[in-house]
Amino acid sequence: MAIPQKRNAAPAAEALRKAVGVAPEMHSRKTDARSVAAYYWRTPWLSSYELGQADELILAMHTGGSRNVRTRVRGGWSDATSFPGHLHLIPAGFSTAFKPEGWIEFLSVHFSRDRLEALTDLGKSITTPASFRFAFHDQFASGCIGALFDELRAPRELGSLFVDSLMDTLALHVMRPSASVLERPGKAETISQGVLARVQDRIDTSLETGISLDELAMEAGLSRFHFARAFRAATGQPPHGYLTQRRIERAKELLRHTDLSLAEIALTVGFSSQSHFSATFRGRVGQTPRRFRVQR
Question: Which CATH class is domain 245-294?
Fold first, then answer.
């Protein structure tokens, strides 16, 4: 997926801020171009606004406000309208306009060229451009966006592995059919036992702090996309699922052999809070950590 490099393209968040006249109420932007870039916006009453060219692909989900938003089509306004629940896909370097005639609330997820190219070892050979899509329904993409913002608001586990995997899954999904070029037909996703052992060791030594998908893929010498598939084929679960399993196994050891409090154990194995630790433990083990400790 090639993202055009426009000289006059602004950072996506800045293009949106300039268009709607307010700063986002929540954001996750970090300095790394491959980091998650997600924003929550709530605008004042707007008749219409112009969205200039941005340097990232934007996937936006209309979540509240006006139920009659239109977009510019061939110099006029579309017959189709957007209301809460609709999605919009805005390619990098694409400019358009929207006519809400009211206030709107929306979530936006931004994908940089670096992040998209890092999905695959095909890199810059991906040339199929994304197309502007307005007011469409996609239950899977909406679910991913909801899960992403839930995790950003209240992380369950330390580290970015779950969010990295979610962002990559979302990117590949919304790019279809363009995303089909990311896969090489007939190429089996494999990882040697030696490499797998190194990756699993990295995960085990990162339980408390967490680890990124980029770090694990680099350890394996694969793109993020191919690493995630190869790891799942070898272990039967995605990297973030395996990390959670190892955290639970370590927690069991601490419950059996130490007198650490549940809050201390939660932090030691990489959960953000005792409540998230207890909920995850119960879901995986079938009983609460406290009950598990009593039965040791």
Answer: mainly alpha
